[in-house]
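To the wet lab folks,

You asked to see what we're planning to order before we commit. Fair enough. Below is the target structure as C-alpha cells, and below that is the sequence we designed to fit it. If anything looks off to you, flag it before the synthesis order goes out.
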C-alpha cells in the first residue's frame, strides 16, 4: 500500500487554547469550524485542517513527554502571491500578537520570506516563491 501525498490535519499543541484561537482569528481572519468543541479548535484551510489542542493532552495521546522547548524541527508555511505581501502578512501577524523572528527579506533560493512565532512559539514562514506561483485558488504550482 502506498500513502497518498496529502496532509489532511495539522495539530498544534498549545498551552493557552483561548489566546491561540483568538490569535489565528485576528491575525489570519480564520473562522473556527462548527466541529470545534471543548478542548479542540479546527480551522479549515485549502485542503488541510489546522487544529489547536492542549499540548499536554496531545503529548499524552502520542505517549511522549509534554515538556521541552526550542526548535522542534517543524515549521508551518504560508505562501503569498507577491513579494510585497510577505511584509504585509508579517505585520498583520505581529499586530495580532506574533513575534517576528526573521523580517521579510530576499533569501538564498531566490524568493522572499520572513518568519514569525505565534503566541505558543510555533514558527510560521511567510514566503513569496517566484518559481512556484500561486494559482487562482491559492495553491502552489509545483509542476
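Sequence we intend to order:
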Amino acid at each position: 500500500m502506498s500513502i497518498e501525498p496529502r496532509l489532511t490535519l495539522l495539530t498544534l499543541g498549545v498551552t493557552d487554547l483561548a489566546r491561540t484561537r483568538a490569535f489565528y482569528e485576528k491575525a489570519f481572519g480564520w473562522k473556527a469550524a462548527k466541529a470545534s468543541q471543548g478542548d479542540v479548535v479546527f480551522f479549515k484551510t485549502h485542503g488541510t485542517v489546522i487544529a489547536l489542542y492542549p499540548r499536554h493532552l496531545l503529548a499524552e495521546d502520542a505517549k511522549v513527554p509534554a515538556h521541552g522547548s526550542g526548535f522542534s524541527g517543524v515549521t508551518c508555511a504560508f505562501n503569498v502571491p507577491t513579494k510585497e505581501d510577505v511584509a504585509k502578512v508579517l505585520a498583520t501577524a505581529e499586530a495580532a500578537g506574533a513575534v517576528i523572528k526573521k523580517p521579510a527579506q530576499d533569501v538564498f533560493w531566490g524568493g522572499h520570506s520572513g518568519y514569525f512565532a505565534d503566541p505558543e512559539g510555533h514558527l510560521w514562514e511567510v514566503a513569496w516563491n517566484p518559481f512556484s506561483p500561486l494559482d487562482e485558488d491559492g495553491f502552489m504550482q509545483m509542476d
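Structural context that might help your review: DSSP finds three helices and seven strands in the chain. Helices lie at 17-28, 55-62, 83-95.

Thanks,
Computational group
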